[in-house]
Design brief:
By secondary structure, this protein is an alpha/beta fold. The protein is 32% helix and 24% strand. It is built from seven helices and nine strands. Helix 6 packs parallel to helix 7.
Length: 227
């Protein structure tokens, strides 16, 4: 089995209310983590002082407010591990997330687990096209590139579509690995802005596929699935 050394990238904007819980869900994983890179996207609250209370492998870096895609890309440029994972500051990983996905990465470029809604006893597991429920070989980003800096929303789905267009080995597994928090400050609550960037993402995909002669649109359902 490959010695996967995981760099975890966490973009955050004014996340002092939730980031401690998110960081604990990383540090409590039963899998070796090389580093946790917290990229503060111009927070105006006490995010910085909260993060700096975490010693050791937590690296904190601040940037001007440019959007989460830029924060993730900065984290990618700093990452030293040979595997990459993401977690937003208001979500949490389930226990054993990396222990489940690490061995699967031996034969895949990307592995994607299931998600459930936090604090909702009726939430059923579902597939979310998010970076937070996946584990990536770092070489996948070397091949596909970083996240599209134009896309404040749908940067995750855009990257998955580019990866699928390039025939990367992507596997979906049934285990729940992410708890997604719904609250009033979620970026995705801005439906008009979300729709605009989602349409831009789809337009970019159409242009790429037209240039490459790809007829069929790559979908999440096309990814290989294992129970």
């Amino acid at each position: 089995m490959t010695d996967w050394r995981v760099s975890v990238i966490m973009p955050v904007y004014c996340g002092e209310a939730f980031i401690v819980e998110a960081l604990h869900s990383i540090t409590r994983q039963d899998w070796p983590i090389k580093e946790i890179i917290v990229v503060d996207d111009g927070s105006t609250d006490d995010t910085a002082s909260v993060v700096r209370q975490f010693p050791g492998r937590v690296r904190y870096v601040h940037q001007e407010n440019r959007g989460p895609q830029h924060a993730r890309n900065l984290g990618l440029s700093m990452a030293c591990g040979n595997a990459i994972a993401f977690l937003d500051a208001d979500d949490t990983w389930c226990p054993g997330k990396l222990a489940i996905q690490g061995p699967l990465l031996d034969t895949e470029d990307v592995v994607i687990g299931h998600t459930r809604i936090m604090n909702d006893p009726h939430s059923e597991a579902f597939i979310l096209p998010s970076l937070n429920c996946a584990l990536f070989r770092k070489s996948a980003f070397n091949q596909i590139g970083h996240l599209d800096p134009e896309l404040e929303y749908s940067d995750d789905m855009d990257w998955y579509m580019r990866a699928r267009e390039a025939d990367l080995a992507i596997r979906i597994h049934d285990d729940v690995v992410l708890e997604h928090r719904r609250h009033d400050s979620n970026l995705t609550r801005n439906f008009a802005k979300k729709k605009r960037f989602h349409l831009l993402m789809l337009h970019k995909s159409i242009l790429r596929r037209r240039e490459k002669g790809i007829v069929i649109s790559p979908l999440f359902s096309d990814f290989r699935h294992v129970g």
